[in-house]
Specification:
By secondary structure, the chain is α/β, with parallel strands linked by helices. The protein has 14 helices and ten strands. Bound molecules: glycine (GLY). The site of glycine has 5 residues, from loops.
């Protein structure tokens, strides 16, 4: 399972080359209603896109469903797609996940290229071969591991992102900093998110993706070290689910940022993560992401949500913790008491 990740300096040339590397009879582009309007006009002017058929689906995670998947399969079928057709996914994580799954299953699998247009999809979703849809009320419940042939990263799309979506992706970059090295983590904490220098951000995105790529190459199907990428996500997914239950959804990266605070607390308590780095990370998260509001009446529900996380094995909550920045401990367990302490700590410090 390998994929080429290209940091684009000329999207047209890079896309033309990527398409040429995937001999195909018909070419399809999948976009959501937002990227069809904002990003497709840029690509559709390229000669390499002249024969492409655009498939548009609803935007946002609520459309990451079996119904939407079926619409994509139908559009491919009606558009005359064969096993030798090619799909280009143009959008955020919802489009690259669902489009990747549609491509992986249509006629037992056609090739696909990802062009992520949000920071979150650039540094996480579009890279590493996780594809899928939500099902039965659970996120990413159905899917397969299957890498895009090529992932094209162009920071031109970052310039039109709103602050919330920028921060959402940045939380995954912060996670990559924490699981890799102190210098990159410190660079991320120093970076001025209020007055973005896009050239510097582009360099940090490339670094962040390289961290993920290195881990995924070692463990494509998450048997071991890929679990490092789950740091912050066990608690983060519980916050995300609770927000959905309240009908007040939060962006994924915000939930991850709050989850990082909790799981670094557990890291300090159970694995010796340094207090100074814990405090600095908490300050950064609090000042940029605010907090997720809950009180002790919500503890049991949050605990329950953590026990349902699909990363658990045998009903035991599975955490990735850190003994230090870059010093990863996978398959860690905490008692219910540790988790209650963690929630107390979160409310006190946030
Ligand atoms: N989003 C975490 C992973 O790709 O493994």
């Amino acid at each position: 399972m390998t994929q080429e990740i290209i940091i684009c300096h000329n999207l047209e040339a890079d896309l033309t080359q990527a398409i040429a590397q995937c001999p195909h009879d018909r070419l399809f582009v999948l976009a959501d209603t937002t990227t069809a309007q904002l990003c497709w006009p840029l690509l559709s002017a390229y000669p390499c896109m002249r024969q492409a058929t655009l498939i548009t689906i609803g935007a946002t995670d609520e459309h990451k469903t079996l119904e939407t998947l079926s619409q994509v399969w139908t559009a491919l079928q009606q558009g005359g797609a064969s096993r030798h057709s090619l799909l280009v996914n143009l959008g955020g994580g919802m489009v690259t996940d669902l489009g990747g799954f549609a491509a992986s299953t249509f006629k037992r699998g056609i090739a696909f290229i990802n062009i992520p247009t949000t920071l979150l999809s650039m540094v996480d979703a579009a890279v590493g071969g996780k594809t899928g849809i939500n099902f039965g009320g659970l996120k990413n419940e159905i899917g397969v591991f299957n890498c895009a042939h090529t992932v094209l990263l162009d920071s031109v799309f970052l310039r039109t992102l709103n602050d919330q979506n920028m921060l959402s992706g940045y939380a995954e970059m912060l996670k990559h900093g924490l699981i890799s090295d102190k210098a990159h983590w410190a660079e991320l904490l120093r970076f001025d998110l209020e007055d973005i220098d896009y050239a510097t951000l582009g360099g940090m995105v490339a670094h962040s993706v390289a961290i993920k790529e290195r881990i995924v190459t070692q463990d494509p199907t998450e048997q071991g070290i890929r679990k490092a990428l789950n740091l912050g996500h066990t608690v983060g997914h519980a916050f995300e689910s609770m927000a959905l239950e309240r009908s007040k959804p939060v962006l994924h990266g915000y939930a991850v940022a709050w989850g990082l605070v909790c799981e670094l607390y557990l890291s300090a308590k159970l694995a010796g993560f340094p207090k100074q780095q814990l405090t600095q990370t908490i300050q950064f998260v609090r000042s940029h992401y605010g907090t997720f509001p809950f009180d002790c009446r919500h503890y049991d529900r949050l605990y329950d949500l953590m026990t349902h996380d699909k990363k658990n094995e045998g009903g035991i909550i599975n955490f990735t913790l850190l003994a230090d920045i870059g010093d990863i401990r996978i398959n860690q367990h905490a008692t219910k008491e540790d988790i209650m302490d963690m929630l107390d700590f979160y409310r006190e410090c946030m």
